[in-house]
Structure formats: C-alpha cells, structure tokens
Design brief:
CATH architecture of the largest domain: 3-Layer(aba) Sandwich
Strand content: 15-25%
Order of helices and strands: HHEHEHEHEEEHHEHEHEEHHEH
Distance between the termini: 37 Å
GO molecular function: metal ion binding
Number of strands: 11
Radius of gyration: 20 Å
Protein name: Extracellular solute-binding protein
Pfam families: SBP_bac_6
CATH topology of the largest domain: D-Maltodextrin-Binding Protein, domain 2
Keywords: Iron, Metal-binding, Signal
CATH class of the largest domain: Alpha Beta
C-alpha cells in the first residue's frame, strides 16, 4: 500500500475506531535463543533522551538481553552501517532512521523481513505487507518561534511567511545531510514552492545547525527567533520543559515524516533483534514514544494533551520511492545554496 494512501486510510480507521487485524500474527521470537546471544545493538536516530529511555525500559525487564544504543542522525547512521557492511563488519542488529528512502535502498541486500508481535492490528500506514520495515514513530514538519521575542501577530503562519525580510539573520535551520526529518520536510517545500523558496531563504542568512533537534534550543536561547522547519515532537518536548516556544502548523500543509525500523539481515544477534523489535512495537514502548510527542501505529496508546492530532491536518506525504529518489538531490542542493 503506498504511504500516501495508507496514511489517509489509517487515519480514517483511527477516527472511526475500527482498526482490525489485517494479517495473521507473526511467529513469536525465540526468547531462549535471544538470551544466549545476550545483547542487541540498536542503530537509531531517535532523539538521544527518548532512545535512552526506551533502551532503559527494555533493560529494566531483565530478560538477559541488553540493549546497546548507538545514536546519531539519520544520515550518519545510514552511512556508518553501509561503510561497515562494505568492510564485511556487522555490528548493528536493528536500524532506525527518519529517511524512509534508506530502507528502500537497503531492502534487497540488508533488511530481513520481520513482523513484530501485534502489528497486525496497527494503523496500516505504520506497517508494510512483507515486514521489510515497520514505522516505529512518525511526526509532522512544523514551524516554531520564540514567544518572548516574537509577538503572536508577527509570527509566521505559513511557510511563505518565513521568507519575510524581517527574519534576516534570525532563522534557524538544520542540515538535511544529517537529518532525515529535514530531508523529508524540505522535499515537501520544494514540491510546493520549487527551489526558488530556498534561494530566498538562503538570502536571509539563516543559522545552520546539524540536527532537527538542535534548532529548538537555538531559538529558545534567543540566538534565532524562528525555526524554519523541524519535527513536531522536538517542539512538543521543549514546550513541555517550559521553553518559550510556540509551534506553528503552516496553512499550506505539513510533511508526514515516517521513521522506519528494521531487523538487519546480517544481525550478529538475530533472535535478540526480534525480541527487541517486539518490545519497540509493544504498547509500553509505543506509549513512551507518544508521551514524548510522537505518533505511532499502536491502536491502544493514549495521546497527551497539547500534541497536534493528525486528524484535521493538511498532510503532505510521499511514497518511500519518492523519498529515496529525491534525498540526494535535496542534500546536494542544500550544500550548494547554503554553502555548508
């Protein structure tokens, strides 16, 4: 099912409360074999604090399997894995990034299909028919601003508003080569406004940081006034901490950023990889993700107050193949236009 269709179907089912089983449950992971392996190496682009929390939850269960986390940006996670694989070095058991194009590229040679326990009841947009990957978490691409430095009436209400000359030198933007969130978000804006949008943005001399997570603290400290695109979950988390930040859902629409997870074909701990994957898609772990501002496929989670519902939003979504095809162009054009 193409993602653009599955998102809408999935959200409709959620709204109607009629998520139903779409496939037979997968065979259970072999816990005894997993215990003998002893650990699972998780390559993940999930923000460090949330990834550590999830890893700790798993380790606190004392299953005899230890979650070992390697956290980095989507681009670096992907490149590290490919470099290791090229040298016939396989450390990672499971991999998770926010660029679904990575998984299209890896599907044939690097991913092992696995359907986590219970995902037959998930929102269809968060699963794949063959289990090559499943969507661990999703968010939308939003604007944000510092409430102490920007009046509500002056704040940008649309993506086009960011190009107002008043924001020259006051915009924060992350790098798509590091961040899968930014790659997909930029793709939505290029499709909407063309590359001329980024020519105009570059002329405003934005402050470029590495990750989508890093833009919010920059604005919270007042080093910039406006975030020209980040994930809603980053923004939600900082607002919860009391930072002077306001999230804006631009009227033209928001990109739907799906972040897949997969078991790796050459995983050194294949059974532990399955046990850990089952945990990631359990209601317990999915609820933790939700409480940190993310959207998930589990039908049993309860969303916190203040997190924007996907229902009613103008969602801009892409097939995995679209993201795969355009990612390199997005990253190269960004370097060219912004000189970084």
């Amino acid at each position: 099912m193409p993602l653009r269709f599955a998102v809408r179907v999935g959200l409709a089912l959620v709204a109607a409360g009629i998520i139903a089983a779409s496939a037979a449950p997968a065979p259970a992971a072999d816990m005894q074999a997993a215990k003998k392996e002893g650990e699972v190496m998780w390559y993940s682009s999930l923000s460090l604090s949330v990834a550590q929390k999830v890893c700790k939850q798993f380790n606190d269960k004392k299953t005899g399997i230890t979650c070992v986390l390697h956290r980095d940006g989507s681009g670096k996670i992907y490149q590290r894995y490919l470099q290791e694989a090229k040298g016939n070095v396989f450390k990672a058991d499971v991999i998770h990034t926010s660029n679904i194009g990575h998984f299209v590229n890896m599907k044939k040679n690097h991913l092992r299909p696995y359907k986590p326990k219970g995902t037959e009841k998930f929102i269809p947009a968060f699963t794949t028919p063959d289990g090559s990957w499943n969507i661990l978490r999703a968010s939308v691409y939003v604007l944000a601003y510092n409430t102490k430095l920007v009046k509500p009436e002056d704040a940008p209400k649309s993506w086009a508003d960011v190009l107002n000359p008043r924001w020259k030198g006051l915009i924060a933007h992350a790098h798509p080569a590091y961040s899968g969130v930014i790659t997909v978000g930029m793709l939505s804006l290029v499709n909407m406004h063309g590359w001329a949008y980024y020519d105009k943005l570059a002329a405003l001399q934005p402050k470029i940081v590495q990750s989508a997570v890093a833009v919010i603290p920059l604005v919270a400290r007042g080093e910039a006034h406006v975030v020209a695109g980040t994930a809603a979950y980053n923004t939600f988390g900082d607002i919860k901490k009391g930072e002077p930040i306001k999230m804006v859902l631009p009227k033209e629409g928001v990109a739907f950023i799906s972040s897949p997870h997969s078991v790796l074909k050459k995983a050194p701990h294949p059974n532990a990889a399955e046990v850990f994957t089952d945990f990631l898609f359990s209601q317990e772990a999915q609820q933790t993700l939700v409480e940190n501002g993310l959207h998930v496929g589990h039908p049993g989670v309860k969303y916190p107050e203040g997190l924007p519902s996907l229902q009613g939003l103008k969602i801009i979504d892409f097939t995995p193949e679209e993201v795969q095809k355009k990612s390199k162009e997005i990253q190269e054009m960004f370097r060219k236009k912004f000189g970084v």
